[in-house]
Amino acid sequence: MRGLVMICCCLLGIQWAQAQNLKGKVLDQQTGKAMQGVGISVESGLATQSTGDGSFQLKLSAGSYLLKASYVGYATIHIPVNIPLKDSLMIRLVPSEQQLEGVTISTGYQTLPRERATGSFAVVDQRQFELQAGTDVLSRLESISNGLTVDRRSSSSGQLMVRGLSTIAGPKSPLIILDNFPYQGDVANLNPNDMESIVLLKDAAATSIWGSRAGNGVIVLTSKKAKRGGGMQVDFNANVLLAEKPDLFSVPQMGSSEFIEVEQFLYDKGFYASRINSAAKPALSPVVELLLANTKGSITAAQLQSSLEQLRQQDVREAYTNLVYQRPFTQQYNLSLRGSEQRIDWYLMIGNDRNRNEVDAASNRLNLISRNTLRLGSKLKVDFGINYTYQNGTGGKASFNDLKNSSGVLYPYLSLADDSGQPLAIPQTYALSYLQTLNRDQFYDWNYYPLSDYLNNNIGNNRRSILGNVALSYELMPGLNFKAYYQREYQQTGSKSIYGTDSYTVRSLVNTYTQLAADGKVTRIVPMAELLDWAQGTMDAQSLRAQLGYNKTLGRGQLDFLAGFELNERRAEGITGRVYGYSDERLSSVALNYNIAYPNYITKANSFLNTGQGLSSTLNRFVSVYANAAYTFDGKYILSASARRDASNLFGVSANDKWKPLWSVGAAWNVHREKFMQLAWLNELKLRGSYGLSGNVDPSRAALTTLLVAGTSTLTQGAQARFDQFANPSLRWEKVATANLGFDFALFNNALTGSVEVFQKVSSDLYGNTPVDYTAVPAASLVMNVAKIRAKGLDVALRYKLADGKFKWVPDLNFNLNKDEVLEYYQASDQGAIFVGTGITASPLKGYPVYSVFSYRWAGLNPLNGNPQGYYQGAVTDNYTQLLGTGTKVSDLVFNGPAFAPVYGSLGQHFAYQNLSLDVRFSFKLGHSFGRSGINYNNLFNSGTGHPEYAQRWQQPGDEAHTQVPSLVYPAVSRRDNFYNNSEVLIEDASSLRLAFVTLGYKWDAKWLSRLSLKSLSIQANASNLGMVWRANKQGLDPDYRTGAIPPARVFSLGLRCGL
Amino acid sequence: MKKMKKNSYFLMLWLMLATGALSCKKYLDAKPNKQLATISSLTELQALLDDHTRLNYQTVYAAEAASDDFYLTDQALNALSLEGDRRVYNWQKGNQFEGTVNGWYYSYLGIYYGNTILESLNEIERTNGNAAQWDNIKGQGYYYKGSNLLNAAMVWALAYAPNSASQTLGLPLRASVDFNVPSTRASLEDTYQQLLSDLKNACRYLAVQQVHVMRPSKAAAYAMVSRAYLMMNKYAEAALYADTALQLKSELIDYNNINATATNPFPEYGMEVLHHVTIANPAVLNQSNASIVDELYNSYAADDLRKKVFFTKLNNRNVFKGNYSGQTSLFFGPAVDEMYLNRAEGYARTNQLPKALADLNTLMLKRWDKTKTYVPYNSSDQQTVIAWVLAERRKELLMRGLRWGDVKRLNTLGYGIKLERKYNSSGAVLEPKSSGFAMSIPETIIDLTGMPQN
């Protein structure tokens, strides 16, 4: 628990003792009992253990030392001592579970006592980490760590960000370190039960050791390890999780009745005529089919009305929720064993997670881990480990998105099954009425039945990963050690999709290429057999590091220095293929001619058969040299410096430019160690500051014109290529300069602890997307080093023990302030239309936040026709060519604030009474804006994207008094829709407070457990994703999730932990 | 001694770092993505030229959308999803090209590909071994540069008139791939001189026989020069280059051998195709919307096979299906039939009537029902022959992206062709001398470059 605890020590009992012999005693802080077997050591390597009465002796020559006392389950503490010492030491250890923050911090290169750190490190509380359930590591961090937020505007899984933005168009993910090296595999391989500590590196002093990939912050995951000393320990953990069905009703959808009304209106206007008449027989909606049947006279007006009436009553979301969705269910089991022998410490873990999701897709993960430390003599230590992960999954039922037709239209009134529960066909690529006319002797059933189609397919995927590492540590001479690390990670992914002969995929493919001769003779180009699509990928990553470290006590000072050399390589390859005429039983296949273009039976368009072939191969290499030095004087004053140069195989950059020096300096002052600060209520006060540079590199950016070789032309039999990137000889890596000032404190017998930090990040040479003249280059916009941004922020972490007796009450707060501003941005145009938007994409403007929400000024609806109106040169107008044209400048827009929350954080309450504990955690995001979606008639007509506010639209003069929703016009005017959807009337305050999780736990007494020969036993129940407690917008929207995304459902879990 | 030992460890470390730094240059020169290539050989250049998706299957279609060979019903017009196409169809200036991937983009994409080829060839030595391939690639580079500029000039510039061309706005001429050079509009004279020079260079370098019509051949380049001269109303040159093209390839499809009832009657890459350039039927031009004007449809004689091969009836409207693409996509590339008509017009205008009539009749014999009698065109009146050539030209080359350019050039000669959207309730009209014959350059381009708008 070395990274997760905090020290509490006191010097007691002043006695004269013999010089050169350090004596002391170790006690449990809570019980006051003497502790046996506590490891006592100094940095030069001299070590001993406390005896049965808790006492120990160490023979030391005169000088200053940092004494370390550690015991499993207790906070490790460090005490500076000067030998000769007149007094005997009294050390009191505190059980680690009560601890707040770590004493040691792992940066991936070294483990250093927090006392001697000058940088900004946020240690994730292990207890809080384990309060949550779930199979992945990173998703647990959002509500409990300081300075970390998740941006979900463009994907529901979200983008993790440490201290806000450092880049605009570059990669935004923080660097993930597992133990010593960047983790190259799929983060989903990692088992949260295997994590011992998690540290966020936030400022330059902390991150610059990671160089050009650390600009977005670093998250260091330290896995559980073998521990020296103590007997064998067995831990078992089991969890079950049950989630609710996803709430399809959280996505705005137009009502069936209104959708049908619009379709009838468009049908009468002849809008569907070109689809109906098209030789390609494109899919028609069920309503259009009915209207057409009525026009042709095949159904009567009365039949039409009753059918439409029935459709009006139907809601596809309800049907799908009832017929398809199930409650996702997850089980997690974890068993670990650890022990220590004379020469070897060992750790073994086996973990198994099993999950079935809402559409019955299964996934299983097996983790097998072994980590060992071998001591060969007093100078040589070898750590070696192997980590095997096997994950496999199967496909599930049709997703909600599969209900869309091939042009992406979802009809809100679709029914999926008839009254007797038989699956019904829904429109896909072709009109159902046309497909019915095909001769069933010549064609297979061409209908898609979403409820049952999955039964015909056998979809599977798997991932195997083996990670092996070895670390060698040799003490060359006292204070000087050499370390060598090697790690290799090999990951193999595979997927196999077998589409059965009754699957829609196969039936449709066979039918499409069916050829009919004049006499009705049928030729099948694609055989009626199973179809196999397969894909394989491999990832092979290697890292090598050689490092020299030097630690020396020089009088009252202490020097720590390390320098090293590192190679990182990641090679990924992929291959895909398709087998026609496949039989899974006989493993047969049929060779088809891929060089002939065959006609589509319906559209008559010729096309080649899809070979399914795809190849990919990428290789990223980094070479780095680095050094880090820290000097501590008297345990009070610390100076640190670090430098690193990186080079990579970034395409097209000459080798000289690849080497990029990055550095940092830091200083800290342990004020509480000063004689004049020996105050009873002050346990700790440390001031620290740092400044330095880290970088951000995007291996996909090239400085030369590059081509993407995209296969072979079946016509010219030659290779085909297109432009991938256009020459940009001035391409540079992004730089992030961070200044950090802060203090850590512990007051009132450690009842109030926390830290306050202010920082400023200036990111320069940022990649930015800027619109270009596509007369000069075939691209609408290009990425160049065009921008400079500055972020200023404040990180506050507080914890206060309000009650600390039998009843415990500990509130804690993570409060983060982060404001970014564009300092420079090369922007060729100041046309307003380029900047409006809901802040999903960056359209940076000097002096404004990087992701700003700009909107058109709103002048209400035109009382005559319900047209949305804006202002052009001061006058109210509905001339959209002017409003969206080059005459409307960015200065004419309304600035609605940042799209990222400038204030975010979390608030926790921990209650405990005897063995029972309750944790409640809230998270908040404040002060930003988002644009909600509105009706877009052009999209409604052409792609079926409706909006419930259609019902509130302007319909007659006077309506403008109570609605802001524009009237329906036909034909739709895309500029009118564009204006309305980017106007200020749709911008909302995105502030919200949500209940992240509630956890109830019970922990049995050790005394009681000893009768069962158990060391520990606890159970806990957790509920998470509990939704919003408060939101600023009145529309009932969840501003964190983008339009159309379903917020995660509530999850309930029950867990058991047991140690013996 | 102890100190020395310590020093030697540091020396070891620095040696290790130094050797590492030296040997890693090679280590770091590895390609980050195997699918990525830089341009270093003829193979890569030809691969770029074989980017069919962008060079053969995309082209500006606005000229055809603005032509008077077809009409849209109000219903079909209103149902168009691209408002810009509606404005092109109705000859309304402003916002005719929306978004960033539009006709302008594809025109200048071809020019950029061409410039890339020509600039990259400077770095690749022409040797005895690679001379044929080197020349052929250079020719293709010139061809895409010149032909795209010609297509763009038909859309965004007024018709060429010799007296005023140097004072008329032309198009930006991109001389290199350096996108830091701002775009400015050259005169129409310079625009045509540039595209003629590029296309003539293409004639010089291109191979006579290509492996496939996806690649432009020498004949295709001659055809494009002929097309350019015709657009300039330079008849002797138009005839000369058409004649050269025909000397390389002159075979015509006999429509008697074509199945008139087929959905797509013509074979793909048929014998008349000189270079395969198509556009997958945009909504404004596809069969379910675009109907052929009655005046044109009725002008085909009953025994003219084109009346059956080219058209089909859809809901009582005559729609076009005679695409030389062999698919539903429209064919905009040069072809042999166009060359017969170019040469015929050139001969007729230069008063070589027998030659003009011979070309016309050669073409017509392949279009006429062989079971019916064909009465050859015959006249000694120049104006009559010219009128016949123009009439056959319109009937043969509809939906090929040429009619709009023809209307423009004929109006500079005083033909006074006034375009009217008769079937359109809003009743658009384009007067013969209207500035509407030069369409609006995309507004975003004007904003970014400050070039004058049409």
From TrEMBL, chain A:
Alphabetical UniProt keywords: Cell outer membrane, Membrane, Signal, TonB box, Transmembrane, Transmembrane beta strand, Transport
Q: What is its main location?
A: membrane
Membrane association type: Multi-pass membrane protein
Endpoints of the signal sequence = 1-19
Query: Is Transport tagged as a keyword?
Result: yes
Instruction: Tell me the ranges covered by the TonB-dependent receptor-like beta-barrel domain, including all copies.
Output: 416-874
Matches recorded under SUPFAM superfamilies:
Carboxypeptidase regulatory domain-like, Porins
Start and end residues of each TonB-dependent receptor plug domain: 115-218
Subcellular location as annotated? Cell outer membrane
Q: Which InterPro entries match?
A: Beta-barrel_TonB, Beta-barrel_TonB_sf, CarboxyPept-like_regulatory, Plug_dom, Plug_dom_sf, TonB-dep_OMP_SusC/RagA, TonB-dep_rcpt-like
The family classification in the record reads: Belongs to the TonB-dependent receptor family.
Q: What is this protein called?
A: SusC/RagA family TonB-linked outer membrane protein
Q: Which species does this protein come from?
A: Pedobacter ureilyticus
The organism's lineage?
Bacteria, Pseudomonadati, Bacteroidota, Sphingobacteriia, Sphingobacteriales
UniProtKB/TrEMBL annotation, chain B:
Output the superkingdom of the source species.
Answer: Bacteria
Location of the RagB/SusD domain: 338-410
- Which InterPro entries does this chain map to? SusD-like_N, SusD_RagB_dom, TPR-like_helical_dom_sf
The UniProt keyword set, sorted, is: Cell outer membrane, Membrane, Signal
Tell me the leader sequence span.
1-23
Recorded hits in Gene3D superfamilies, A to Z, give: 1.25.40.390, 1.25.40.900, 2.20.20.130
Domain SusD-like N-terminal residue range list = 26-230
Where does this one sit in the cell?
Answer: Cell outer membrane
Keyword Signal in annotation: yes
One Pfam family named in its UniProt record: SusD_RagB
The similarity comment for this entry is:
Belongs to the SusD family.
Q: What is this protein called?
A: RagB/SusD family nutrient uptake outer membrane protein
